[in-house]
Amino acid sequence: MNETIVEESLHRAGLSDIYEKVRQGKRLSPEDGIRLYETADICSLGFLANLVREEKNGDYTYYIYNQHINYSNVCTNLCKFCAFGKEDGQPGAYCMSLEEIVSKVEERLDEPIREVHIVGGIHPELPYSYYIDMLREIKRVRPELHIQAFTCVEIAHIAKMGGKSIEEALLELKEAGLGSIPGGGAEVFSPRIRERLCPEKLPGSQWLEVAKTAHRLGIKSNATMLYGHIETVEERIEHMVALREAQDETGGFMCFIPLAFHPKNTSLEDVAPTSGIDDIKNIAVSRLMLDNFPHIKAYWVMLGPKVAQLALSFGADDMDGTVLEEKITHMAGGETSQALSNREIEYLISSAGRIPVERDTLYNVIKVIS
Ligand code: V47
Fold first, then answer.
1. Which of 193, 183, 115 is nearest to 152 (CA)?
2. pTM above 0.85, yes or no
């Protein structure tokens, strides 16, 4: 595009100074982040985010062949935004035995699955050995599978159940087969939000401590932010800045995933679902603010495949994966299908003018689809 036209648009949007910072690779301030959220000029915002996206990842757009297992929805936290968690004994509450978990993995041994993504509720009774044995058993039936399991909130709980420090528990989980940690449970770090929506949940500061401890032990992790409920734009930016600071310390985060809140069947049913513009803004602003995160993921399960595809021009360079049997979004009214085939994901990426790249969990390239 003609340089002058771009500069004129950015000037009209009041974003020339941010453009200059982006061009020079300078870090954006929290105030810059707030202005980016406030702009109505989504094209200028996208232009800026895309500069960073292409600087970091070119046209490469990653996806993974993966499987999700939600081993139990029994949860003592019962966060107001969640339709998945149930009290023990409540109708619909479930907890999979180790045999059931293993058979979920065995059912798909003929597929080229690279990663199993495992998340569950904060179960009041499952012993420490359940989690260790789960990892060992999965590794026994499929040793090459990368296990991305247990959010930082679950890790803190598992450690408590075993009477271990976070560090001890992480080392033992790693020894049993834990490959990396998914980004859930971060929600919004603001104590105001946590007090109102998830008072029982691990505080944001402790979520960050678990993540940093994992990184120091050589375990990589992801980070999320749940947006579109009662949080303010300032609280979103504070959340990103806290992650950026943690990443400066450890460098252990692989990707950031903005998660679009789905209100159905939750205590926040009155909240309107997120708009396409807000979805795109969260992708773009996070790409610009999180200058030390290598990847931004457009999680198609929550965004819907069409918005996720558009996000690839607004900062995102990852579409997660094939997924299958996702429960957290679908219990909250998510209308996307349960899985996409790798062909469907590749089509979404290539028809957005990008290059599909099959990756493993740690972003090693498996196949560039040309
Ligand atoms: O922590 C709960 C969120 C998260 C709702 O690391 C909801 O690659 C929307 O973290 N509407 C779990 N979101 C999922 C998650 C995740 C997903 C995909 C990839 C990765 C990754 C991580 O889902 C929870 C919570 O923040 N959540 N309820 C809801 N009603």
1. 183
2. yes
